[in-house]
């Protein structure tokens, strides 16, 4: 990702997360304004705010436990110092490194997974476009053979980004599409193979089995290639996203997460590397 594209990405991420950040700040400030003294009741209220803000119960408890320990160790008793300590602890726990895809080999593979309707196909199109702008040759495997619309959308994105698409008729074996795409990637001496997959609902065993077959084909045919597995999640999903992560992780290792619809639309996306 070039410097210009990188700055644009982080500006979009900052704008997309702005509403969430402001909402949490407002709720935390409201807690402090409602209490006259710093005590255990205040910490309980702060913990509840963090949990209700979708940070997650385990992480929220961890943050407040660290805050409680620091208050005792440093004998913090005033509101402003508690706020400062809370901010520093949250930054330490929630900070995310700059996201970068690991594409160390030629070819490298990006496997994109996720349920229907989260913006998976559009995310693939944007990833392909960014890679082509970096001068890379990209092949896209249209392995979501269960929805003709998904292939049609992917064709449009590939045409826009000047990347090549490998597809088969609707209902074809997804793993065979991936195999053909690997052959094409070798023939074209392409840098990156991006694989689209069906919207695999976590309670559909046959669909998860298809994902396992795709993984086997990639591992067999490209054993030395770098492989990213990106799970696309709708940012508005909330705690249900954890269920999706756990379900997909039973079938494949997830190396990163793509968050879509950060501002309530499909326009903004961000990718978090799994360190």
Q: Could you name the ranges where pLDDT drops below 50 across 5 or more consecutive residues?
A: 1-10, 264-273
- Overall residue-averaged pLDDT value: 81
Structural class: alpha/beta
Alpha-carbon Rg, integer: 22 Å
**Count of DSSP-assigned helices:** 9
Give structural attributes.
Rossmann fold, disordered N terminus, 275 residues, alpha/beta, Four Helix Bundle (Hemerythrin (Met), subunit A), elongated
Description:
Residues 1-10 and 264-273 have low confidence and may be disordered. The protein has a 7-stranded mixed sheet with strand order 3-2-4-1-5-6-7, sandwiched between helices. The chain has 9 helices and 7 strands; from the N terminus they run ααααβαβαβαβαβαββ. The protein is α/β, with parallel strands linked by helices and 275 residues long. Helix content is 54%, strand content 13%. Helix 9 (240-249) links the parallel strand 5 and strand 6. The radius of gyration is 22 Å and the shape is elongated. The chain has 2 domains: 3-94, Four Helix Bundle (Hemerythrin (Met), subunit A) (Up-down Bundle); 108-273, P-loop containing nucleotide triphosphate hydrolases (Rossmann fold). The chain starts with a helix and ends with a strand.
């Amino acid at each position: 990702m070039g410097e210009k594209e990188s700055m644009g990405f982080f500006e979009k991420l900052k704008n997309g997360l702005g509403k969430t950040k402001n909402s949490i700040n407002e709720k935390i400030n409201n807690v402090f304004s409602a209490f006259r003294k710093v005590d255990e009741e205040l910490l309980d209220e702060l913990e509840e705010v963090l949990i209700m803000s979708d940070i997650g119960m385990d992480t929220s408890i961890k943050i407040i436990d660290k805050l409680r320990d620091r208050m005792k160790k440093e004998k913090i008793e005033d509101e402003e110092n508690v706020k400062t300590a809370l901010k520093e602890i949250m930054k330490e726990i929630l900070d995310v490194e700059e996201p970068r895809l690991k594409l160390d080999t030629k070819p490298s593979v990006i496997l994109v997974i996720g349920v229907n309707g989260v913006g998976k196909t559009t995310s693939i199109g944007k990833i392909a476009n960014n890679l082509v702008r970096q001068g890379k040759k990209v092949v896209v495997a249209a392995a979501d053979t269960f929805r003709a619309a998904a292939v049609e959308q992917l064709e449009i994105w590939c045409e826009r980004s000047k990347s090549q698409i490998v597809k088969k008729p609707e209902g074809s074996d997804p793993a065979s599409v991936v195999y053909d795409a690997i052959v094409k990637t070798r023939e074209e001496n392409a840098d990156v193979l991006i694989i689209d997959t069906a919207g695999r609902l976590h309670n559909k065993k046959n669909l998860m089995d298809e994902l396992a077959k795709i993984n086997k084909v990639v591992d067999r045919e490209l054993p030395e290639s770098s492989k990213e597995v990106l799970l696309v999640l709708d940012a508005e999903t909330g705690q249900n996203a954890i269920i999706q992560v756990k379900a997909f992780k039973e079938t494949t290792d997830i190396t990163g997460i793509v968050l879509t619809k950060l501002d309530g639309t499909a326009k903004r996306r961000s990718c978090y590397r799994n360190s």
